[in-house]
TrEMBL record, chain A:
It comes from Propionivibrio dicarboxylicus. It holds the Pfam family GatC. Its EC number is 6.3.5.-. One of its GO terms (biological process) is translation. Transmembrane segments: none annotated. This is Aspartyl/glutamyl-tRNA(Asn/Gln) amidotransferase subunit C. Belongs to the GatC family. It catalyses: L-glutamyl-tRNA(Gln) + L-glutamine + ATP + H2O = L-glutaminyl-tRNA(Gln) + L-glutamate + ADP + phosphate + H(+); L-aspartyl-tRNA(Asn) + L-glutamine + ATP + H2O = L-asparaginyl-tRNA(Asn) + L-glutamate + ADP + phosphate + 2 H(+).
Automatic annotation (TrEMBL), chain B:
Allows the formation of correctly charged Asn-tRNA(Asn) or Gln-tRNA(Gln) through the transamidation of misacylated Asp-tRNA(Asn) or Glu-tRNA(Gln) in organisms which lack either or both of asparaginyl-tRNA or glutaminyl-tRNA synthetases. The reaction takes place in the presence of glutamine and ATP through an activated phospho-Asp-tRNA(Asn) or phospho-Glu-tRNA(Gln). It comes from Propionivibrio dicarboxylicus. PROSITE patterns: GATB. Its EC number is 6.3.5.-. SUPFAM superfamilies: GatB/YqeY motif, Glutamine synthetase/guanido kinase. Heterotrimer of A, B and C subunits. This is Aspartyl/glutamyl-tRNA(Asn/Gln) amidotransferase subunit B.
Length: 95, 485
C-alpha cells in the first residue's frame, strides 16, 4: 500500500498541520516506509488470536468516586495567554 | 399520493450523577464559577493520565441491568479525535468497538386509558464517555471564552435501533428513558442544565419499502416539546424534498426553536473523520459477574415491575398504576401511604395522591419529595375516610390543616377541631326536625311537588351539622321524615 499526495494533505489537515507541497512529498516517502513495516507485520498469521486493546494484558484500575482536586484556576491561568472573567480566551470559533 | 413511513433512532447523552469526573478527581457540581472545577487532567496538561471512576462504571452497570442488556465483561476506551477549543486533549475518550452495555430494550406506552398500546424499543448499545467543556461566543472582543468545568463529566450515551415510527413514539421513548435513568439514580434528568440531551436520526421511506431512506441527524434536542416539533418539521421537509424530486443528503441539522425549523449544520462531505483507536492510556475495563450481581441486588424495583404489582395487588387501573410509577418519589410516597391506610384503601389512596395532593403540590410549585403532608399523614387521613370517621368533604379540610401544619396527624386534627362524622341517627334526626321547623315554606313547596325544595332542605340539614353528617344518611332520614310528616 502507498499513500497519494492528496491523502497526505488530508491527514495533515485532520491533524491541523500546515505542510508545503515539498514537505508533503517528503512526508509521503516517510509514511510509505512505515507502511512497508506494517505490511511486514500483517504478513504474520494471527488467525484465531483475539486482538488486544492494549500491549499489556492487564485490566483497568478504578478509583473511588471522590472529589480529590481543589480549585487551582489561578495557577493554571497564570500561564495562559489570555483570560477574562475566569474564562480562557481563544480565537473565535463558531461551527 | 404516496404513503410515507417515518423511521427514527435516538441517541441520548445522560450525564451520570457521580461526585467526581470520569477520569479525574474534580467535582462535577453544576453552576460553579468558570474553570474552578478543571484540574490538570481536565485541562490536558502534559504528562497527566486518566484514571477511571468506579462510580461511573457502576452507573453503566445499573443501566445495563435496568434495560436487560448485556453488561460487557470486557469493554475498551477509545479516542475520538477532533479539534475544538473546549476539548483540550484534541480527542474525546469514548468507547467504540467494545461498549460497556450491549443491546437492551425499553417498553413505551402510546395513547392513554383503554386506547393505550405498548411497544418495545430495542437498544443497540450504551457506552461511557467524557463530556467536553463549554464555549461562550458572546462578546469577548471578538474571541471565544472557554469554561472547562464540564470537561470530563461522565456521560452514558444510549443508542436505539431505528425502531420508532412517529414523533409521538420518539417522545414517548425519550420520556420513558428520562424516567428510567432518574428512577435508577444514575442521572438527575435536568434538561435545562443539559444533563439529558437527545439527538434524533430521522428518515422517511415509502410504506412497504425495506431499505431505509437517507437520514438526517437533529442535534441537541433539550426538551420533549422541541423534539416533537423538530421531528415533525423534519419529516414534512424530507417528504416535500422527495416529492419535489430532490434526493435527501445525509446531514447533521440543528433545530431552531424560534422559527420551528431545522437547518443543515454540515453535510456528509464535511462530516468529521474521528479516526477512533483504543486509548493507550487506559487498559480494558473488566467487569466481573460478582460486581454485576452485587449491583443487581442493590437496584430498586423497576417501574414496569412495580406498575404490574400495583395493578395485581392493589387493583389499580393500568392508567393509575402508570401515573403512580412516573417517578421513584411518587411510587415511594404512594406505597408508604397505602402501608398506613391499609391495602383495602389502596384505590382511594391513589386518588388522593394523583388528584388532591398533586393539585395542592402544583399550586405551591412543590415536588412530592418536599410535600408538607407526609405519606404517613395522608395514609392516616385516608384510613379515617375508609372507616367512616369523616366524610370526603371534611377530609379535604383535614388535608388543608395537615398542609398548614395544624397538627401532627389526621386523628389529632379531627379530635382537636371536632370534625368527627355524626353517625348517631338520633342526633341527626333532632337536627332535621329543627331544620324542618325553621323552613316550613320549603316543606310546603316540596309537598306541592317541587323536588328542588328537597335538595335545598338537604343543604340546610348539612349546614346544621356543619358538614359532619353523612350526606347519604341525611338524605334518607329527611325523606323518611317528610313522608311521615
Amino acid at each position: 500500500m502507498s499513500l497519494s499526495l492528496e491523502q497526505v494533505h488530508r491527514v495533515a489537515q485532520l491533524a491541523r498541520l500546515e505542510i508545503s507541497d515539498a514537505e508533503a512529498e517528503t512526508t509521503r516517502t516517510q509514511l510509505n516506509a512505515i507502511f512497508t513495516l506494517i505490511e511486514a507485520m500483517q504478513a504474520v498469521d494471527t488467525k484465531g488470536i483475539e486482538p488486544m486493546a492494549h500491549a499489556q494484558d492487564l485490566s483497568q484500575r478504578l478509583r473511588p468516586d471522590e472529589v480529590t482536586e481543589t480549585d487551582r484556576r489561578g495557577a493554571f491561568q497564570a500561564v495562559s495567554p489570555e483570560v477574562e472573567a475566569g474564562l480562557f480566551l481563544v480565537p473565535k470559533v463558531i461551527e | 399520493m404516496k404513503q410515507w413511513e417515518v423511521v427514527i433512532g435516538i441517541e441520548t447523552h445522560a450525564q451520570l450523577q457521580t461526585r467526581s469526573k470520569i477520569f479525574s478527581g474534580s467535582s462535577t457540581a453544576f453552576g460553579a464559577e468558570p474553570n474552578v472545577q478543571a484540574n490538570a487532567v481536565d485541562l490536558a496538561l502534559p504528562g497527566v493520565l486518566p484514571v477511571l471512576n468506579r462510580g461511573a462504571v457502576e452507573c453503566a452497570i445499573r443501566f445495563g441491568l435496568a434495560v436487560e442488556g448485556e453488561v460487557a465483561p470486557k469493554s475498551v476506551f477509545a479516542r475520538k479525535n477532533y479539534f475544538y477549543p473546549d476539548l483540550p486533549k484534541g480527542y474525546q475518550i469514548s468507547q467504540y468497538e467494545l461498549p460497556v452495555v450491549v443491546g437492551g430494550k425499553l417498553t413505551i406506552t402510546l395513547g392513554e386509558g383503554d386506547a393505550a398500546v405498548e411497544k418495545t424499543i430495542n437498544l443497540t448499545r450504551a457506552h461511557l464517555e467524557e463530556d467536553a467543556g463549554k464555549s461562550l461566543h458572546e462578546d469577548f472582543h471578538g474571541k471565544s471564552g472557554i469554561d472547562l468545568n464540564r470537561a470530563g463529566t461522565p456521560l452514558l450515551e444510549i443508542v436505539t435501533e431505528p425502531d420508532m415510527r412517529s414523533s409521538a413514539e420518539a417522545v414517548a421513548y425519550a420520556r420513558a428513558l428520562h424516567a428510567l435513568v432518574r428512577w435508577i439514580g444514575i442521572c438527575d434528568g435536568n434538561m435545562q442544565e443539559g444533563s439529558f440531551r437527545c439527538d434524533a436520526n430521522v428518515s422517511v421511506r415509502p410504506v412497504g419499502q425495506q431499505e431505509f431512506g437517507t437520514r438526517r441527524e437533529i442535534k441537541n434536542l433539550n426538551s420533549f416539546r422541541f423534539m416533537q416539533q423538530a421531528i415533525d418539521y423534519e419529516v414534512s421537509w424530507q417528504i416535500n424534498e422527495i416529492e419535489e424530486g430532490r434526493a435527501i443528503q445525509q446531514a447533521t441539522v440543528l433545530f431552531d426553536p424560534d422559527t420551528g425549523e431545522t437547518r443543515s449544520m454540515r453535510t456528509k462531505e464535511d462530516a468529521h473523520d474521528y479516526r477512533y483507536f483504543p486509548d493507550p492510556d487506559l487498559l480494558p475495563l473488566m467487569i466481573d459477574r460478582d460486581w454485576v450481581a452485587r449491583t443487581r441486588a442493590d437496584m430498586p424495583e423497576l417501574p414496569t415491575a412495580k406498575k404490574q404489582r400495583f395493578v395485581a395487588d392493589f387493583g389499580l387501573s393500568a392508567y393509575d398504576a402508570t401515573t403512580l410509577t412516573a417517578s421513584l418519589d411518587i411510587a415511594g410516597y404512594y406505597e408508604a401511604a397505602v402501608a398506613v391506610a391499609g391495602k383495602g384503601a389502596a384505590k382511594p389512596c391513589a386518588n388522593w395522591v394523583m388528584v388532591d395532593l398533586a393539585a395542592r403540590l402544583n399550586k405551591d410549585g412543590l415536588d412530592i419529595a418536599s410535600s408538607p403532608v407526609s405519606a404517613a399523614q395522608l395514609g392516616g387521613l385516608v384510613a379515617r375516610i375508609a372507616d367512616n370517621t369523616i366524610s370526603n368533604n371534611i377530609a379535604k379540610k383535614v388535608f388543608e390543616a395537615l398542609w398548614a401544619g395544624e397538627g401532627q396527624s389526621a386523628d389529632e386534627i379531627i379530635e382537636k377541631q371536632g370534625l368527627k362524622q355524626i353517625t348517631d341517627t338520633g342526633a341527626i334526626e333532632k337536627l332535621i326536625d329543627e331544620v324542618l321547623a325553621a323552613n316550613a315554606a320549603m316543606v310546603a313547596e316540596f309537598k306541592a311537588g317541587k323536588e328542588k325544595a328537597f335538595n335545598a332542605l338537604v343543604g340546610q340539614a348539612m349546614k346544621a351539622t356543619k358538614g359532619k353528617a353523612n350526606p347519604q344518611q341525611v338524605n334518607e332520614l329527611l325523606r323518611k321524615k317528610l313522608a311521615g310528616a
